[in-house]
Amino acid sequence: MDVAVAGVGIAGAFVLRGLKGSLEVLGIDKREKLGYPVECGEIIPTKKEMKVLLPNLEDYSLFNIPKRFESNRTKEVHFILPNGRTYEIDFEFHVVERDKMIQTIAEESGHELMLKTRIKGLRGDKLITERGEIDAEVIVASDGPNSRLAKALNLPKREFSPAKQYVMRGVECDEDVVYMYIGREISPGAYAWIIPKGDGVANVGIGFRPEYSNKGDTIVRALDRFVREYPYSSQFLKKAEVVSGIGAVVPVDLPVERAVYGNVLFAGDSASMVISHVGGGIPPSMVAGDAAAKVINGYFDGNAELEEYDRLWKRYLYQPLMNAYYLKRLWDRFSDSDERITRILSLASDADMGKILRCRIPAKIRLISPLLPIVEKFI
Ligand SMILES: Cc1cc2nc3c(=O)[nH]c(=O)nc-3n(C[C@H](O)[C@H](O)[C@H](O)COP(=O)(O)OP(=O)(O)OC[C@H]3O[C@@H](n4cnc5c(N)ncnc54)[C@H](O)[C@@H]3O)c2cc1C
After folding, report:
1. Atom 27 of ligand 1 has which residue's CA nearest to it?
2. Is the pLDDT of residue 345 over 90?
């Protein structure tokens, strides 16, 4: 093989999509049906928003998301605080059918796929799967947050947030709005969401970082409170029923410092390339997957080194991901009680929350940053 793509989720699908047809490529995944079950809220900012979110990207055509993958297009994000205060922000998302998107992109790439095959690790520069060894000149490690290849290379462990989500039908919310709920009672150290997919169907979920939760609380109980009791969410879910449920993890850490190790290139969650304050990993995975493919094409054409990939993904992603991590760390400092979260956020305007959503650090946060140890004592 020229290239083995180890894990065909979002990042892997975009690697396959970008690799030249003349290369001998194999995409490997443990799943029987790519992208399924869907462990994701399925929102991707529209191209207009991506231009603000990732200002250094050169080609935004990746974000021309075809209609056939879209189940809904939302226009606003509402952030709801524990006291009911709501910030309403104009922000457009595609709500996609993520499994269909991954499956279609991978199949349309024309490259060979080997499904129902578990990757076990590396032996030297060869990929080990449960079906045997694969000898590929280049390996892309796009095997998600619990990357076997990251473990095989002893990369430092990254912080995760567990998350749980139901698909519900009979949801009565405004289908133009993505609802994000901030509060320790329903989502310790993270946030909860209702994401309308259209026709009364929605992804309803929570992040749950145990270190911020009350002793004895569990993610299942917190999600049930969110669905059945929490006044600002349960009002939309009174008649709704659960269709399916998943549990998964989202990386909420810094991105890796380097993503190229010999002939192995890491892309997406395996390299913690995530907008960590909102757990948004689809856009960085698309961008990293596409960048990896471009570099690999150049490598086989004889005009690029694999190390070029580190320069490229960092140019596109690094600063927004670092800003996101800064905001997430700031957030963590006030996440020990709903009263504190509410008090600190009462200082923010709709415009500030809009900036935060777009990975920008509002001027007032920059100003108070040096004084945080003092501010913390009074809030
Ligand atoms: C509940 C939840 C909601 C989310 N909502 C959103 C959202 O709305 N918008 C957003 O931008 N981000 C969201 N995210 C994050 C986003 O889903 C991920 O960041 C993104 O999917 C990462 O893509 P990836 O290709 O790196 O990994 P994945 O999509 O996880 O793909 C990894 C692939 O590798 C395969 N694999 C893993 N291990 C092996 C193995 N040992 N052998 C063979 N194959 C293997 C898996 O089967 C999978 O297909 C959410 C995450 C969670 C958990």
Report:
1. 144
2. no
